[in-house]
Write a structure and sequence with these properties.
The protein has about 725 residues and is an alpha+beta fold. Bound molecules: S-adenosylmethionine (SAM). S-adenosylmethionine binds next to strand 15, helix 14 and strand 24. It comes from Mytilinidion resinicola.
């Protein structure tokens, strides 16, 4: 939804990649005979490493290819059989086996982390690790470096894009960092000098020192080693508390919480354990539990000032969560300032529930009557990838190509997959909200964990993402303010994107009754019509623009459905001759618009063409909005307002609203009250329509109507921007 689908533009790249895949498939099962000598591979890798660093600094465009999906390993390590590099067959997943490998080079990070590895027969191969932490979260060299011993489960051996042979690991749980004491490590790889076994205390001190240097991952290893040594109950508690902080720093909130002892802190809980538990709960968005722990902390340690700060934050989140009352001014200010624009606010789920629909899988329904403008959801992103839009400069965009599924997306999706995979891997307690989202026919593994590690299927994540991702601007307010600078009906698509797990249950309809807006990574969904209890909420995946049925259905191909709303049904029933007639009229309209001068447009011609276009529709506009009409009709309203032709401008406003499916009364200069009887389709430009009505009524002294028109403008503004506290600063008065 609103992401850059560039499948057509990168058609050739897609085709090339498909060919590469097909060629590779032909070699399936082969054992390569043309391995390069070890030294040559080493030299080639090191040269690429140096040259790559320079090139990557210059390049702003990266591309990422998704291989044919394969399942993660679910077999416990103890049941896997060891193989060697020379045993490997091309384009094969070596099920039931594992490789023990040692890195022989420093790592190189492009889309994946690459490193040369050897086995104990001294054979060498390239290893590509995907979905690992980004550099700013964890240095590449901390993940793998010369001498690191790794175990790759059920290795996938293939021909890489460069034509060389390599191992590709897409699932995080398919690669294990081997403990230095692991009996599987061959003697030749063990340190020559016998390492003195350190005590729990010394290892804890080492961990503390790593923490001091900001080496949190290393600290976790040291604390974990420390915990494997004999220690008293008290020592264990201290080590775990320390490790809990390291887990917090590395966003492993489940583990951080578990190390605090939560939910039972014992009869004498420590200040640190309580505080860390509260922090972990806050990040896991379990605000009421966080609040309770902080209350306990405040009772036991009343002088802890930091706890009070977090307590106040948790209290605000609890209130947002239960009431839907947000300080929207603050949210707007935060979205303007914060980069990435990821805001610290809770999710409010309004009067809605998930239910089964007849033909569209699950959907979101209102549980009580709501009015146009009412808040249905204000949702914090589950995962959000921020990409600076090109006009903000310095944008680093990735092209994500899935040759199997025939799709190419430009933007943050490839980052988003990594962000989601990391979140699910490190915080399995939050995974269900994501993994239960729509994923078509993809069959995921049912085993949640193996060898104590969560199993996260990267291809399931990719599949869920592609069905549920939303493109998002920094804020809808910024887009709204720039609207005048853009061509009026230009579709919007964004590089930044995210997953909102509640909003994901909303199905598409061209005759939508809800609208989403963004403030940073908060999505605000409001009703665009008065809705009866039990009504299914729908919004636009793509804004309908009145183009042909084929074009509009093409837009839904990637979601694998055909829209059968009233607009699409009408388009299906419309005869080809009528469509051709509309096309002709639109071309003439374009010529009239193109020939307009600063002194104006030939309004009589536009009126005539609009009338002719209007006559091509048969069903009432409130059932089938007349999407080709509203834009030129609004143009007329603008012109008449500028000419101070009040009668005509009110008429044009009324007709614009009618074209959008509204039923209104009093859109004229009589003394009748102006009123929306039924709301139609809501879009940014509607604010302008109501403001023209306000100006026209004002000009004839129809104050009440003018106030009512302003009220409608504000409701519309609230719907498309997400809030109305900024209305005055945007539109004055
Ligand atoms: C973001 S999900 C929406 C929730 C989904 N219905 C579910 O069961 O989780 C998108 C998927 O919903 C279905 N869908 C959405 N709008 C639809 C429509 N108008 N008609 C049929 N299916 C639709 C399609 O399968 C689409 O890929």
């Amino acid at each position: 939804m609103d992401v850059h689908n560039d499948t057509d533009r990168y058609f050739q790249t897609l085709q090339n990649q498909k060919e590469t895949l097909q060629k590779a498939k032909k070699r399936q099962g082969q054992r390569p005979r043309d391995w390069k000598p070890r030294e040559e591979m080493y030299l080639g890798f090191m040269m690429a490493l140096v040259a790559g660093e320079q090139r990557e600094r210059r390049d702003t465009m990266r591309s990422s290819f998704i291989p044919p999906a394969y399942l993660p390993c679910t077999t416990p390590l103890a049941e896997l059989r060891r193989v060697t590099i020379r045993d490997l067959q091309l384009e094969t997943h070596h099920r039931g086996t594992y490789l023990l490998l040692r890195a022989t080079t420093p790592p190189r990070r492009i889309t994946a982390i690459m490193v040369l590895v050897e086995d104990d027969c001294a054979d060498v191969v390239m290893l590509q690790l995907y979905q690992q932490e980004e550099e700013d979260t964890r240095e590449t060299a901390d993940i793998v470096n010369v001498g690191t011993i790794l175990l790759v489960k059920e290795p996938y051996f293939k021909v890489m894009a460069s034509g060389e042979y390599g191992l590709r690991v897409d699932h995080l749980s398919d690669v294990i960092n081997v403990d230095k004491d692991d009996p599987r490590i061959p003697g030749a790889w063990r340190p020559r000098a016998l390492e003195v076994e350190l005590s729990a205390e010394s290892l804890k001190i080492k961990g503390n020192s790593s923490m001091g240097k900001g080496k949190y991952w290393q600290a976790i290893t040291e604390y974990s080693e420390s915990l494997s040594q004999p220690a008293t109950v008290n020592e264990i508690e201290i080590i775990k508390r320390n490790r809990s902080l390291a887990f917090l720093k590395t966003k492993q909130f489940d583990a951080a919480l578990s190390d605090t002892g939560f939910p039972s802190f014992g009869s004498n809980p420590t200040e640190k354990a309580l505080f860390r538990a509260a922090e972990a709960l806050y990040f896991l968005r379990r605000f009421s539990e966080c609040y309770e722990v902080l209350e306990l902390l405040r009772t036991k340690f009343p002088n802890n000032k930091q706890a009070l700060v977090v307590l106040n934050r948790a209290r605000s989140r609890c209130s947002e969560q239960s009431t839907g009352d947000y300080n929207f001014k603050l949210l707007q200010a935060e979205a303007k300032k914060l980069r990435p624009p990821q805001l610290d606010h809770a999710t409010y789920i309004g009067p809605v529930e998930i239910r089964k629909t007849e033909k569209k899988g699950r959907g979101l329904f209102v549980t009580k009557a709501v009015k146009a403008g009412d808040l249905l959801l204000c949702e914090k992103a589950f995962g959000h990838a921020y990409v600076t839009e090109s006009d903000e400069g310095n944008s680093k965009v990735t092209l994500l190509i899935n040759p199997e599924k025939n799709r190419a997306f430009m933007g943050g999706q490839s980052d988003l997959i990594r962000i989601l995979v990391q979140k699910l891997y490190h915080n399995p307690s939050v995974a269900r909200a994501f993994t239960t989202l729509h994923h078509g026919t993809y069959e995921a593994v049912s085993t949640p964990a193996v060898d104590g590690k969560a199993i996260v299927d990267t291809f399931l994540v990719e599949q869920i993402m592609s069905f549920n991702v939303f493109g998002c601007p920094l804020s809808s307010l910024i887009i709204h303010k720039n609207l005048g600078a853009k061509k009026s009906k230009e579709p919007t698509a964004y590089h930044s994107c995210g997953i909102w797990t509640q909003a994901s249950y909303i199905n598409h309809s061209c005759t939508s009754n809800a609208c989403r807006a963004f403030i940073g990574d908060m999505m605000i969904v409001r009703a665009t019509q008065d809705l009866e209890p039990g009504t299914e909420i729908t919004f636009w995946y793509r804004i309908p623009d009145g183009t042909t049925l084929k074009d509009s259905q093409e837009a839904f191909k990637s979601w694998e459905f055909v829209c059968d709303c009233a607009i699409c049904q009408d388009a299906k029933e419309t005869k080809a001759a009528v469509i051709a007639e509309r096309q002709k009229l639109l071309e003439r309209m374009k010529r009239v618009r193109d020939s307009s001068t600063p002194n104006g447009i030939q309004t009589d011609k536009v009126e005539r063409l609009l009338k002719a276009l209007n006559n091509t529709y048969t069903r009432p506009a409130d059932e089938v909005p007349r999407l080709l009409l509203w834009d030129p009709q609004l143009l007329l309203a603008r012109v008449y307002i500028a000419q101070k032709n009040i009668t005509k401008s009110l008429e044009a406003v009324g007709k614009t609203l009618t074209a959008l499916g509204f039923i209104v009364v009093g859109a004229d200069s009589s003394s009748a009250g102006f009123r929306v009887v039924k709301w139609g389709l809501v879009m940014d430009h509607l604010v302008e329509v109501f403001l023209h009505a306000r100006s026209a009524f004002e000009a004839i002294g129809a104050w009440e109507n003018s106030m009512r028109a302003e009220k409608y403008a504000i409701v519309t503004y609230r719907i498309v921007i997400g809030e109305d506290t900024s209305f005055k600063s945007t539109y004055g008065r």
